[in-house]
Amino acid sequence: MMRMHDESPSRDNITRRATTLLLVAVAGVAVVGFLVGIDYGVPHHDPGIPAAAAASDHGGVVLPATNYARLPDALVGPTRRWPHELDRLRTPTPDLFAEIVPDPEAKLASLRQRSERRAYNGAPPVVPHTVDQLGQDTCLACHGPGLRIENRIARSLPHPYLANCLQCHAPATPAEFASVPLAGNGFDGVAAPTEGARAWLGAPPVVPHTTWMRNDCLACHGPNGWPGMETTHPWRQNCLQCHAPSSALDLNPSTLTAVEFLPPPDVVEP
Q1: How many CB atoms neighbour CB 5 within 10 A?
Q2: Which of 17, 77, 140, 178 has its CA 20 to 30 A from that of 211?
Q3: DSSP character for 253?
Q4: What is the pLDDT of residue 56?
Q5: Average pLDDT value for residue range 53-68
Q6: Residue 50 has pLDDT above 90, yes or no
Q7: Which residues pair with residue 152 across a beta bridge?
Q8: Cβ atoms of residues 100 and 230 within 8 Å
Q9: Distance (Å, rounded) from C-alpha 50 to C-alpha 218?
Q10: Would you call 39 helix, strand, or coil by DSSP?
Q11: Beta partners for 171?
Protein backbone atom coordinates (compact mmCIF):
# COMPACT_ATOMS: atom_id res chain seq x y z
CA MET A 1 0.00 0.00 0.00
CA MET A 2 1.52 3.41 -1.05
CA ARG A 3 2.18 6.20 1.50
CA MET A 4 0.23 9.40 1.13
CA HIS A 5 2.48 12.38 0.15
CA ASP A 6 3.00 14.80 3.07
CA GLU A 7 1.89 18.24 1.82
CA SER A 8 2.80 20.08 5.03
CA PRO A 9 5.83 22.42 4.63
CA SER A 10 9.08 21.06 5.86
CA ARG A 11 11.25 22.72 8.46
CA ASP A 12 13.76 23.82 5.79
CA ASN A 13 11.07 25.64 3.79
CA ILE A 14 9.85 27.46 6.88
CA THR A 15 13.39 28.58 7.68
CA ARG A 16 13.98 29.90 4.15
CA ARG A 17 10.71 31.83 4.14
CA ALA A 18 11.40 33.35 7.54
CA THR A 19 14.89 34.36 6.48
CA THR A 20 13.54 36.01 3.32
CA LEU A 21 10.92 37.96 5.27
CA LEU A 22 13.52 39.04 7.81
CA LEU A 23 15.89 40.32 5.11
CA VAL A 24 13.07 42.21 3.40
CA ALA A 25 12.12 43.80 6.71
CA VAL A 26 15.74 44.80 7.43
CA ALA A 27 16.13 46.30 3.95
CA GLY A 28 12.89 48.24 4.36
CA VAL A 29 13.98 49.63 7.73
CA ALA A 30 17.36 50.62 6.24
CA VAL A 31 15.74 52.50 3.36
CA VAL A 32 13.37 54.33 5.70
CA GLY A 33 16.26 55.17 8.04
CA PHE A 34 18.34 56.52 5.15
CA LEU A 35 15.54 58.77 3.90
CA VAL A 36 14.84 60.07 7.39
CA GLY A 37 18.54 60.51 8.19
CA ILE A 38 19.44 62.74 5.24
CA ASP A 39 16.65 65.13 6.22
CA TYR A 40 17.38 65.01 9.95
CA GLY A 41 18.84 68.23 11.31
CA VAL A 42 17.91 70.37 8.30
CA PRO A 43 15.91 73.33 9.62
CA HIS A 44 12.43 73.82 8.19
CA HIS A 45 10.49 77.00 8.53
CA ASP A 46 7.36 76.67 10.65
CA PRO A 47 4.67 79.03 9.28
CA GLY A 48 3.25 79.37 12.77
CA ILE A 49 6.49 80.76 14.21
CA PRO A 50 7.48 84.29 13.11
CA ALA A 51 11.04 84.79 11.95
CA ALA A 52 13.24 86.37 14.62
CA ALA A 53 15.16 89.58 13.97
CA ALA A 54 18.79 88.95 13.06
CA ALA A 55 21.70 90.74 11.43
CA SER A 56 20.97 94.16 9.99
CA ASP A 57 22.66 93.37 6.67
CA HIS A 58 19.85 90.90 5.92
CA GLY A 59 17.04 93.33 6.61
CA GLY A 60 16.29 91.95 10.07
CA VAL A 61 15.22 88.53 8.77
CA VAL A 62 16.95 85.25 9.49
CA LEU A 63 17.97 83.55 6.27
CA PRO A 64 17.09 79.85 5.97
CA ALA A 65 19.94 77.39 6.07
CA THR A 66 21.23 76.19 2.72
CA ASN A 67 20.20 72.67 1.79
CA TYR A 68 23.14 70.28 1.93
CA ALA A 69 22.45 69.08 -1.60
CA ARG A 70 22.79 72.66 -2.92
CA LEU A 71 25.71 73.68 -0.70
CA PRO A 72 28.48 73.01 -3.31
CA ASP A 73 26.85 75.50 -5.71
CA ALA A 74 25.77 78.05 -3.09
CA LEU A 75 27.59 81.36 -2.54
CA VAL A 76 28.14 81.82 1.17
CA GLY A 77 30.46 83.84 3.38
CA PRO A 78 31.55 87.49 3.25
CA THR A 79 32.57 87.24 -0.42
CA ARG A 80 29.27 85.83 -1.66
CA ARG A 81 28.42 89.13 -3.42
CA TRP A 82 31.67 89.19 -5.36
CA PRO A 83 31.51 88.32 -9.07
CA HIS A 84 32.54 84.74 -9.75
CA GLU A 85 31.86 84.50 -13.49
CA LEU A 86 35.03 84.07 -15.53
CA ASP A 87 33.65 86.25 -18.35
CA ARG A 88 33.28 89.19 -15.96
CA LEU A 89 36.66 88.59 -14.35
CA ARG A 90 38.50 88.50 -17.66
CA THR A 91 40.82 91.51 -17.74
CA PRO A 92 42.04 93.01 -21.00
CA THR A 93 45.78 93.45 -21.36
CA PRO A 94 46.67 97.10 -20.69
CA ASP A 95 48.09 99.12 -23.55
CA LEU A 96 51.49 100.34 -22.38
CA PHE A 97 51.69 102.81 -25.25
CA ALA A 98 48.29 104.45 -24.71
CA GLU A 99 48.41 108.20 -24.24
CA ILE A 100 48.28 109.23 -20.58
CA VAL A 101 46.99 112.72 -19.79
CA PRO A 102 47.91 113.82 -16.23
CA ASP A 103 44.85 114.64 -14.13
CA PRO A 104 45.72 116.74 -11.04
CA GLU A 105 42.22 116.36 -9.54
CA ALA A 106 42.34 112.56 -9.81
CA LYS A 107 45.79 112.62 -8.23
CA LEU A 108 44.57 114.59 -5.20
CA ALA A 109 41.57 112.25 -4.85
CA SER A 110 43.92 109.25 -4.91
CA LEU A 111 46.12 110.82 -2.23
CA ARG A 112 43.09 111.42 -0.01
CA GLN A 113 41.94 107.82 -0.43
CA ARG A 114 45.42 106.52 0.34
CA SER A 115 45.60 108.56 3.55
CA GLU A 116 42.20 107.25 4.69
CA ARG A 117 43.48 103.67 4.56
CA ARG A 118 46.70 104.30 6.48
CA ALA A 119 47.48 105.19 10.07
CA TYR A 120 50.21 107.50 8.76
CA ASN A 121 52.03 108.16 5.51
CA GLY A 122 54.13 105.12 4.68
CA ALA A 123 52.15 102.71 6.86
CA PRO A 124 50.74 99.54 5.29
CA PRO A 125 47.14 100.14 4.19
CA VAL A 126 44.23 98.32 5.77
CA VAL A 127 42.25 95.85 3.66
CA PRO A 128 39.38 97.97 2.25
CA HIS A 129 37.02 95.01 1.72
CA THR A 130 35.73 91.97 3.54
CA VAL A 131 38.25 89.19 4.05
CA ASP A 132 37.57 85.50 3.59
CA GLN A 133 41.20 84.44 3.65
CA LEU A 134 41.91 80.73 3.90
CA GLY A 135 45.53 81.32 2.88
CA GLN A 136 47.80 83.84 1.24
CA ASP A 137 46.84 82.48 -2.18
CA THR A 138 43.47 84.21 -1.91
CA CYS A 139 45.23 87.59 -1.69
CA LEU A 140 47.77 86.81 -4.38
CA ALA A 141 45.11 85.64 -6.82
CA CYS A 142 44.22 89.30 -7.45
CA HIS A 143 47.06 91.31 -5.92
CA GLY A 144 49.87 89.14 -7.24
CA PRO A 145 49.67 90.13 -10.91
CA GLY A 146 47.33 93.10 -10.39
CA LEU A 147 43.86 93.05 -11.93
CA ARG A 148 41.20 95.46 -13.12
CA ILE A 149 37.72 93.99 -12.57
CA GLU A 150 34.97 96.21 -13.99
CA ASN A 151 35.44 99.53 -12.16
CA ARG A 152 37.56 98.09 -9.33
CA ILE A 153 41.35 97.81 -9.33
CA ALA A 154 43.32 95.19 -7.41
CA ARG A 155 46.81 96.68 -7.43
CA SER A 156 49.79 94.38 -7.57
CA LEU A 157 52.23 93.93 -4.71
CA PRO A 158 54.71 96.83 -4.54
CA HIS A 159 57.10 94.72 -2.43
CA PRO A 160 58.55 91.19 -2.56
CA TYR A 161 56.36 88.22 -1.73
CA LEU A 162 55.63 87.85 2.00
CA ALA A 163 53.53 84.94 3.20
CA ASN A 164 51.32 86.42 5.95
CA CYS A 165 49.48 89.36 4.37
CA LEU A 166 47.30 90.13 7.40
CA GLN A 167 50.32 90.48 9.65
CA CYS A 168 50.79 94.01 8.31
CA HIS A 169 47.59 94.73 6.38
CA ALA A 170 44.86 94.73 9.03
CA PRO A 171 41.35 93.77 7.89
CA ALA A 172 38.73 96.49 7.72
CA THR A 173 36.61 97.15 10.80
CA PRO A 174 33.71 94.66 11.01
CA ALA A 175 30.25 96.11 10.42
CA GLU A 176 29.26 95.27 14.00
CA PHE A 177 31.90 97.69 15.34
CA ALA A 178 31.52 100.42 12.73
CA SER A 179 29.55 102.64 15.12
CA VAL A 180 31.90 102.15 18.08
CA PRO A 181 33.95 105.35 18.66
CA LEU A 182 37.69 104.82 18.59
CA ALA A 183 40.08 106.22 21.17
CA GLY A 184 41.43 109.59 20.18
CA ASN A 185 45.13 110.44 19.88
CA GLY A 186 47.25 113.48 19.20
CA PHE A 187 49.47 111.86 16.59
CA ASP A 188 49.90 113.83 13.36
CA GLY A 189 51.57 111.95 10.54
CA VAL A 190 53.59 113.48 7.76
CA ALA A 191 51.46 114.37 4.75
CA ALA A 192 52.04 112.40 1.59
CA PRO A 193 54.09 114.36 -0.96
CA THR A 194 52.36 115.42 -4.13
CA GLU A 195 55.45 115.47 -6.34
CA GLY A 196 59.21 115.10 -6.27
CA ALA A 197 61.78 117.86 -6.65
CA ARG A 198 63.49 118.43 -10.00
CA ALA A 199 67.07 119.50 -10.63
CA TRP A 200 65.86 121.74 -13.44
CA LEU A 201 62.73 122.30 -15.48
CA GLY A 202 62.07 119.17 -17.49
CA ALA A 203 64.38 116.95 -15.45
CA PRO A 204 62.98 113.67 -14.11
CA PRO A 205 61.66 114.22 -10.58
CA VAL A 206 63.25 112.62 -7.57
CA VAL A 207 61.24 109.85 -5.89
CA PRO A 208 59.49 111.80 -3.08
CA HIS A 209 59.10 108.81 -0.76
CA THR A 210 61.13 105.89 0.51
CA THR A 211 61.67 102.94 -1.80
CA TRP A 212 61.63 100.41 1.06
CA MET A 213 58.77 97.92 0.48
CA ARG A 214 58.01 99.88 -2.70
CA ASN A 215 60.21 97.98 -5.10
CA ASP A 216 57.65 97.75 -7.92
CA CYS A 217 56.96 101.30 -9.04
CA LEU A 218 54.30 100.19 -11.55
CA ALA A 219 52.15 98.82 -8.73
CA CYS A 220 51.05 102.41 -8.04
CA HIS A 221 52.21 104.25 -11.15
CA GLY A 222 51.42 101.65 -13.81
CA PRO A 223 48.29 101.14 -15.94
CA ASN A 224 46.46 99.51 -13.00
CA GLY A 225 47.82 101.95 -10.45
CA TRP A 226 46.33 104.99 -8.75
CA PRO A 227 44.33 107.36 -10.98
CA GLY A 228 46.23 110.55 -11.60
CA MET A 229 49.58 108.95 -10.68
CA GLU A 230 50.09 106.92 -13.84
CA THR A 231 53.40 107.28 -15.56
CA THR A 232 53.36 108.47 -19.15
CA HIS A 233 56.00 105.90 -20.14
CA PRO A 234 55.21 102.54 -18.47
CA TRP A 235 57.26 100.62 -21.05
CA ARG A 236 60.45 101.86 -19.36
CA GLN A 237 60.98 99.30 -16.61
CA ASN A 238 64.08 100.64 -14.82
CA CYS A 239 62.51 103.62 -13.10
CA LEU A 240 65.43 104.43 -10.79
CA GLN A 241 67.76 104.84 -13.76
CA CYS A 242 66.31 108.34 -14.23
CA HIS A 243 64.24 108.97 -11.11
CA ALA A 244 66.80 109.04 -8.32
CA PRO A 245 65.59 107.94 -4.87
CA SER A 246 65.66 110.50 -2.08
CA SER A 247 68.90 110.16 -0.15
CA ALA A 248 67.37 111.82 2.92
CA LEU A 249 64.33 109.52 3.06
CA ASP A 250 66.20 106.35 2.17
CA LEU A 251 69.04 107.17 4.58
CA ASN A 252 71.73 106.55 1.99
CA PRO A 253 75.04 106.17 3.88
CA SER A 254 76.94 107.82 1.01
CA THR A 255 75.48 111.21 2.01
CA LEU A 256 77.02 111.02 5.49
CA THR A 257 80.61 112.10 6.10
CA ALA A 258 83.12 110.53 8.46
CA VAL A 259 83.28 113.80 10.46
CA GLU A 260 79.79 113.16 11.76
CA PHE A 261 80.93 109.90 13.34
CA LEU A 262 84.61 110.31 14.17
CA PRO A 263 86.47 113.18 15.94
CA PRO A 264 88.96 115.24 13.91
CA PRO A 265 92.50 113.80 13.71
CA ASP A 266 94.07 116.59 15.88
CA VAL A 267 91.70 115.97 18.79
CA VAL A 268 93.31 113.82 21.47
CA GLU A 269 91.06 111.96 23.79
CA PRO A 270 91.97 112.44 27.52
Answers
A1: 5
A2: 140
A3: G
A4: 46
A5: 60
A6: no
A7: 149
A8: yes
A9: 55
A10: helix
A11: 127
Q: Report which residue type is found at 135.
A: G
Which residue type does 126 have? V
- Name the amino acid, one letter, at 178: A
Q: Which residues pair with 127 in a beta bridge?
A: 171
User: CA dihedral in degrees (255, 258, 263, 266; nearest 10)?
Assistant: -120
* Residues 40, 34: Cα–Cα separation, whole Å: 10
Angle, alpha carbons 247-244-98 (nearest 5°): 145
Answer positive or negative: Cα dihedral of 140, 143, 145, 151: positive
pLDDT in tens, 169-206: 988 777 777 777 777 777 777 778 888 889 898 899 99
State the SS3 of 221-249: HCCCCCCCCCCCCCCCCCHHHCCCECHHH
- Do 96 and 223 touch, CB atoms closer than 8 A? yes
Residue from 259, 227, 225, 256 nearest 239 by CA: 225
Closest of 190, 227, 217 to residue 105, by C-alpha: 227
What 3 state SS string does 195-221 have? CCCCCCCCCCCCECCCCCCCCCCHHHH
Residue type for position 155? R
Q: How many CB atoms lie within 10 A of CB 70?
A: 8
Helix spans in the chain (H): 11-39, 86-89, 104-116, 136-143, 218-221, 247-250
The secondary element (H helix, E strand) that includes residue 147 is strand 147-149
